[in-house]
């Protein structure tokens, strides 16, 4: 389950990613204040079932800081397209993302949201966009600046009077009003310039046009454009263009430590910050790994922009340029960070996010990320901080199907490759003897394979602890610590029995260690109980098959491998049973008739 330390989250705009156990991105979201937004996931009063499921499934959180909310929106869209997270609204491919179509061949072009680009269509397309809702919000703002027609061509031909959009000044009503093509084309050109990253240039042109109209005493038209300019400046204020020129480039920054070299690359497209990537490599024997990283990064199928800005000079820069140019098919320049104001801001953005990445990686390198292992060591009175912890639990199904199970947590997270199940070999045994058998088998195998944990947690009290200590003594194990965890009536961990101490230690209820131990013990209980229930179903099915005429050991084995319970076999079609190896229609009918009589 995702656990977020809100004290570490900055109060800054940004994008956050929820990741699963295997590192897969489960959800991408944006926020103008990351701390406030993530507070909702941690302490929100009412989470929908879907969000609750996301929080329970997610195991890790990453976030990227931005300067404005608009920048966060752009990053969110790019990350969703890149990672295609399970919990975001996803489309199968780009052709299903919403596109903007501008029919330039039409007398009065309009902007339309479409899902597919028509083959042979001479219209101009923008996109794709990952959010139809967000796209509609942008269009709503743009309609104040560029009041293009909203109706379809067929509707435009039928219309006799202006629609409501004309009344609210969001359309010039070319359907019924005498609008010149030249005047309308200026609006169309403005839309094109805006979506190609020329928003600021467009504002300058509108401002110049206002001055020209005022000089010509066309005050009504000048006032109209003045209002449009205010709306445009409001949009541009939220966009955070990082470069004035609409250029494509990559901006690199690195930092070396004793054991690693960390990198961040910012992707600038049309002057906007589109995204980033961070990673690290082992520190080379001498110098920087920048040159090797550049080659591996760009020759791995990445898009190579015309300009790549580096934090320092590197050897063989001309040769590297030639390799990248040949790979890209156009001239590539490797340049050093300039001292201009724009690039100083870029460096600040890169540095801020690189430091966040380095800090998060250092937390990962420390056992259990943020010191939970220290808390476990202190509360459980251990000799050292544990990395691998195993827990054992016993289970049975109404006195039958007696089993044991062990689960493993490595650095605070489940390691299911070390989960183990055990059938109790001797019937009629008590808890202590069953515990001895299961723990002995697990630890004996661990000695042979070299897979002993640092700490073993036993579900039980003082007697269970003494049983575990007897197993350690019989196997001559001296470097494994064991603790017995006693639960209260609500099945919550309450106190811990420690070897050599007369009285147990009560767990602090409101500390992280309490929740962690509870999580480990609950997982052990779930795993053992699930196994007991499965074994009981198999025993019921196996015992029933022994009574049916014509079902010998081989056919019984085939049935047990294909059906988990009597109910599964009862629901199976006759034809499916008849097609099993060693079966035919007659045997299948006999089996089905017996099942019917048994259910009656």
From TrEMBL:
Location in or out of the cell: Cytoplasm
Domain UVR stretches: 200-235
Residue span(s) of domain UvrC family homology region profile: 265-472
Domain named GIY-YIG: residues: 11-89
Biological process terms in GO annotation: nucleotide-excision repair; SOS response
TM ranges: none
Signal peptide location: none
Primary location: cytoplasm
Keyword DNA damage tagged: yes
Pfam families noted in UniProt: GIY-YIG (PF01541), HHH_5 (PF14520), UVR (PF02151), UvrC_RNaseH (PF22920), UvrC_RNaseH_dom (PF08459)
Family affiliation: Belongs to the UvrC family.
The name this protein goes by in its record: UvrABC system protein C
């Amino acid at each position: 389950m995702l656990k977020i330390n809100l004290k570490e989250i900055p109060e800054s705009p940004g994008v956050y990613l929820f990741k699963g156990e295997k590192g897969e991105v489960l959800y991408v979201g944006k926020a103008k204040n990351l701390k406030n937004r993530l507070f909702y996931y941690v302490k929100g009063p009412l989470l929908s079932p879907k969000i609750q499921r996301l929080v329970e499934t997610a195991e890790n959180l990453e976030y990227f800081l931005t300067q404005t909310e608009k920048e966060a929106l752009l990053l969110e869209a790019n990350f969703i397209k890149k990672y295609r997270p399970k919990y975001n609204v996803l489309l199968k491919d780009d052709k299903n993302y919403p596109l903007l179509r501008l029919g330039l061949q039409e007398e009065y072009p309009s902007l339309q949201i479409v899902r597919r680009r028509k083959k042979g269509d001479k219209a101009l397309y923008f996109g794709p966009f990952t959010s139809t809702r967000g796209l509609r919000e942008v269009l709503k703002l743009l309609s104040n600046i560029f009041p293009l027609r909203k109706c379809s061509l067929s509707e435009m031909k039928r219309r006799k009077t202006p629609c409501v959009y004309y009344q609210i000044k969001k359309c010039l009503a070319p359907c019924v009003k005498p609008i010149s093509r030249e005047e309308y084309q200026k609006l169309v050109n403005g839309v094109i310039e805006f979506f190609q990253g020329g928003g600021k240039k467009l504002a300058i042109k509108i401002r110049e046009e206002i001055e020209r109209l005022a000089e010509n005493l066309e005050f009504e038209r000048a006032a109209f454009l003045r209002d449009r300019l205010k709306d445009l400046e409001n949009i541009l204020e939220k966009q955070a263009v990082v470069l004035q020129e609409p250029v494509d480039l990559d901006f690199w920054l690195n930092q070396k430590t004793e054991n690693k070299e960390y990198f961040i690359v910012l992707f600038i497209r049309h002057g906007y910050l589109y995204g980033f990537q961070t990673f690290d490599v082992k520190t080379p024997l001498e110098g920087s790994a920048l040159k090797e990283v550049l080659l591996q990064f760009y020759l791995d199928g990445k898009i190579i922009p015309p300009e790549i800005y580096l934090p320092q000079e590197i050897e063989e820069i001309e040769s590297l340029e030639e390799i990248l140019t040949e790979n890209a098919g156009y001239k590539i320049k490797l340049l050093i960070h300039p001292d201009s104001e724009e690039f100083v801001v870029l460096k600040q953005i890169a540095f801020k996010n690189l430091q966040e990445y380095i800090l998060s990686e250092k937390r990962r390198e420390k056992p259990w990320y943020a010191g939970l292992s220290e808390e476990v060591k202190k509360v459980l009175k251990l000799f050292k901080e544990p990395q691998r912890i195993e827990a054992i639990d016993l289970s049975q199904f109404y006195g039958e199907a007696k089993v044991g199970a062990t689960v493993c947590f490595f650095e605070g997270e489940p390691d299911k490759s070390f989960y183990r199940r055990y059938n109790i070999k001797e019937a009629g045994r008590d808890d202590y003897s069953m515990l001895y058998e299961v723990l002995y088998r697990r630890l004996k195998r661990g000695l042979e394979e070299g897979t002993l944990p640092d700490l073993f947690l036993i579900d039980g009290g003082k007697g269970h602890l003494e049983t575990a200590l007897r197993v350690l003594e019989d196997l001559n194990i001296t470097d494994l610590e064991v603790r017995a965890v006693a639960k209260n009536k609500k099945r919550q961990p309450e106190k811990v029995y420690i070897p050599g101490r007369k009285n147990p230690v009560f767990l602090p209820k409101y500390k992280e260690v309490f929740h962690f131990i509870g999580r480990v013990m609950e997982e052990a209980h779930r795993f053992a109980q699930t196994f007991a229930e499965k074994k009981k179903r198999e025993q019921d099915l196996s015992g029933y098959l022994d009574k049916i005429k014509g079902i010998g050991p081989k056919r019984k084995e085939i049935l047990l491998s294909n059906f988990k319970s009597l109910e599964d076999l009862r629901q199976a079609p006759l034809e499916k049973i008849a097609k099993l190896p060693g079966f035919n229609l007659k045997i299948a009918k006999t089996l089905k008739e017996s099942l019917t009589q048994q259910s009656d």
